[in-house]
Amino acid sequence: MKKYFAIVAMVAAFSFGMTPSVMAQDEVAEEAAAEQVDSVAEEATDSVAEEAAPAVEEAVAPVEEEEGLHKTLKTKFIEGDAGFMSLVSIALVLGLAFCIERVIYLTLAQVNTRKFMATLAEKVKANKIEEAIEYCAGTRGPVAQVSKKALQCLASEEQNDIATIERSINIEAEVQGAYLEENCSWITLFIAMAPSLGFLGTVIGMVQAFDDIERAGDISPTVVAGGMKVALITTIFGIVVALILQVFYNYVLSRVEALNSNMEEAAMSLLDMCVKSPKCKK
Fold first, then answer.
1. Is the distance from CB of 111 to CB of 141 less than 8 angstroms?
2. Which of the two residues, 264 and 215, has the higher pLDDT score?
3. Are 172 and 111 contained in the same domain?
């Protein structure tokens, strides 16, 4: 019996002694596995970060370039003598203001000439002259104004002969053409002023360069660079402003020519309508 208890005690002691060692081994294994997982995760994170870095740099690069361009333009504006550069900038702003005003005016003056003249011809053919005059008064544009003037002469008892109607059409067409070209002279003025101001800055920059040479008593690139930089920057800016305004001016002229062509077409149709009208004196 004592041997039996002794064997049981030895087995229990051996079992309790092995349990901590097994648990310790399990803990060591778990720690090793956790360290291995952490190392793998770190490596994966580093690789993902390395792969994402170029994309982030590419996304940030345009912002840096834009900021750099804005800063460069600001620096060049200051280096080009802010006084003359401001004058050229004012010429640009005022020139663009007149260009935009002309574009809006000419856009509003544009109508469907063929449709307008067809409707007008139907009213005149039906001898509804007053209604045709009201229709012209309610339509914008030079074509409607020329038509209104011709129909007013046709409705009059004293000026309804074909010669008077033709003369009134020509006079009104000249008046409307002058309205279309209004303020265009200001645009040409600023087109001429912008490079002229740039060249003036160029001359002043050259004078500054020679003054610097005289004070230094030596011709060196460092002495001449300052004045030459002012000269070149003002010239470039003035030419760029003139080119921008010239593009807008040519567009305005093209719209004016189109409206003048519409008025000529409308004048021919008006004369034909008036000749066929029973109210016109032949």
1. yes
2. 264
3. yes
